[in-house]
Amino acid sequence: MQFPDYRPRRLRQNEGFRRMIRETLLTVDDLILPLFVIDGKNIANPIESMPGHYQYSIDNLIQQTQKAADLGIPSVMIFGIPDKKDSLASRAYAKDGIVQRAVSAIKPKFPELVVITDVCLCQYTDHGHCGVVEGHVVDNDSTLDLLARTALSHAKAGADMVAPSDMMDGRVGEIRDALDENGLSQVPIMSYAAKYCSAFYGPFRAAAESAPQFGDRRTYQMDPANAMEAVREATLDIEEGADIIMVKPALPYLDIISRIRDEIDLPVAAYNVSGEYAMIKAADQMGWLDGSRVMMETLTSIKRAGADMILTYFALEAAEVMRNSQS
Ligand code: PBG
Predict the structure, then answer these.
(1) Which alpha helices (DSSP H) does 209-245 contain, by range?
(2) Does residue 205's CB lie within 6 angstroms of at least one atom of ligand 1?
(3) Element (H, E) at 54
């Protein structure tokens, strides 16, 4: 059928029709809120390049988590900022580490909420790399044990799911084994399988105080030019026992989300990262964009590309928009 017999505008003429033919529905169930936690009491250090986000002490983290729960957001992801850094990231897997304490404080208060922890060493190493450094090389195999210990300590503290973001080879299998050997076979692994070496992480590194002190992350994070390799990474992680596959960042990698969705039969998560958030917030503050509408359009595009869940700093705001549009 062709014009004038077929007229696509017929089904766009009012909101009723538009609702009936809408292909992608973003809901609050799709959202995961990332939160930063730091030592101390009653602390909320603003993160300059991420307006509306703070480094929270555990008491304030609980309040923020309450907001997420009240809005019906099903899940939060916890990032820790440790009191001390050293070459072996010892505060990453310490029983009384910041994430471990945060999780054990939150979990009993929010039994229904899925509490995910980021498993990586970069916030905890004095050199800021995601693994153990030998000379100027990030050593893969000696990092694996530390990652497994970190994940295990999070799960023991009560984390519902662990999310390794380091991009070392073989870490998913190592973490799966550690969990299983310790009676934690029920704890799923959300793998940052296709994590690109991206300049969009800039604001996060300021927030988490995790910028590498020398070099960059190109020897472990993926080259932004590669797509096939993302499928290979995801396949490896599945063979090692991943339960959810993540693509990160989201917006510049919608093609990767779509491709992983087509080729992989596990749930797919997308991380709408700090730089994506900062761009929209900055343009909104300048009056150059309608931030709220661009936020909803962005999140819808990530869902349309194939993400089953979206980690986003917009989670609270987007959940509010959705709630208000229902009432
Ligand atoms: C740690 C980690 C990073 C992010 C999540 N986990 C940063 C990095 O790889 O340097 C980025 C998240 C964001 O930008 O919002 N490995």
Answers:
(1) 228-240
(2) yes
(3) strand 54-56
* Residue 305, both tokens: 């590309």
How, if at all, do strands 114-119 and 244-248 pair? unpaired
Could you tell me the mean pLDDT of each successive run of 10 residues in the chain, 327 residues long?
Answer: 96 97 98 98 97 98 98 98 96 98 98 98 94 93 97 98 97 98 98 97 92 93 97 98 98 98 98 98 98 98 98 98 89
Which atom of ligand 1 lies closest to the CA of 275? 14
CA of 324 to the centre of ligand 1 (A): 31
**Which of 161, 200, 130 shows the shortest CA–CA distance to 309?**
161
Cα–Cα distance between 187 and 154 in angstroms, integer?
Answer: 10
CATH superfamily of 26-326: Aldolase class I (3.20.20.70)
Instruction: Answer whether 194's CB lies under 8 Å from 233's CB.
Output: yes
pTM exceeds 0.85 for this model: yes
d(CA 16, CA 242): 41
Spatial separation of the C-alpha atoms in residues 201 and 211, rounded to whole Å: 9
Helix, strand, coil percentages (3-state) for the chain, rounded to 5, are: 45, 20, 35
